[in-house]
Amino acid sequence: GAVVSQHPSWVICKSGTSVKIECRSLDFQATTMFWYRQFPKQSLMLMATSNEGSKATYEQGVEKDKFLINHASLTLSTLTVTSAHPEDSSFYICSARDRVEPNQPQHFGDGTRLSIL
Amino acid sequence: QKEVEQDPGPLSVPEGAIVSLNCTYSNSAFQYFMWYRQYSRKGPELLMYTYSSGNKEDGRFTAQVDKSSKYISLFIRDSQPSDSATYLCAMSRNSGYALNFGKGTSLLVTP
């Protein structure tokens, strides 16, 4: 089956640093990837939609200058949390839509747990 | 009012019981409905995917969609301890689009 790999799975860093999270589609190409954030005991909330070769579309209330998204290839999207603060600590999950089967459900990665001290 | 409502539980049942999970929603434009299972510190795993109203069965799992009531359900028969997880409902207006998730229901199946 289609596999989406996220890296790192867990990261702890100091307040003020920037953290990059990678989302890779391993055995399919993804023109569209989605980034979600999940706080404890909360639902997944869409942060942004990333389209290969173009600028990401951010949801209302999500700061595009703080959460930088790059989708430079059909198999890789990155989310960089700039100048991270403790309130950015969360579970970040990406999903990818198969270019060949765009109407099928998205494939999810296993998430990245981000802890800012 | 949130677009998707789901009781977070927790729900505790004995092994072998039939589990009923459900969600309500407010946006009548939703046409695609999914149920995901999520283990702790893992990404969501797709269980069921349905379009519009109706029932769909896959092994021990049955998904029901009632668009007139804006109500969807997931039934798990012969529940097993390995079914213990958080179950998330999700829906979208168009297939392949970003999903609107419920908060998730925590299920515990006790031996």
Helices of chain A, by number, come to 0
- How many strands of chain B? 11
Shape of chain A: globular
Major sheet description of chain A? 7 strands, mixed
Please state roughly what percent of the residues of chain B sit in beta strands, choosing from under 5%, 5-15%, 15-25%, 25-35%, 35-45% or over 45%.
over 45%
| Average of pLDDT of chain A | 93
User: What is the H/E order of chain B?
Assistant: EEEEEEEEEEE
In helices, the fraction of residues of chain A equals under 10%
What overall geometry of chain B do the principal axes of the alpha carbons give?
A: globular
What gap, in angstroms, lies between the N and C termini of chain B? 37 Å
Low-confidence stretches of chain A: none
- Compute the gyration radius of chain B: what is it? 13 Å
Q: Tally of extended strands of chain A? A: 11
How does this model look, in words?
The complex is a heterodimer of chains A (117) and B (111). Chain A starts with a strand and ends with a strand. Chain A is built from no helices and eleven strands. The radius of gyration of chain A is 13 Å and the shape is globular. Chain A has 117 residues and is mainly beta. Helix content of chain A is 0%, strand content 53%. The model of chain A has no long low-confidence stretch (mean pLDDT 93). In chain A, strands 2, 4, 5, 6, 9, 10 and 11 form a seven-stranded mixed sheet that branches. Chain B has 111 residues and is mostly beta strands. Chain B contains no helices and eleven strands. In chain B, strands 2, 4, 5, 9, 10 and 11 form a six-stranded mixed sheet that branches. A five-stranded antiparallel sheet of chain B has the order 1-3-8-7-6, with no helix packed on it. In chain B, strand 6 (54-58) and strand 7 form a beta hairpin. Chain B is globular. The chains are: A mainly beta (117), B mainly beta (111).
Q: Which features does this protein show?
A:
heterodimer, A: 117 residues, mainly beta, seven-stranded mixed beta sheet, four-stranded antiparallel beta sheet, B: 111 residues, five-stranded antiparallel beta sheet, globular
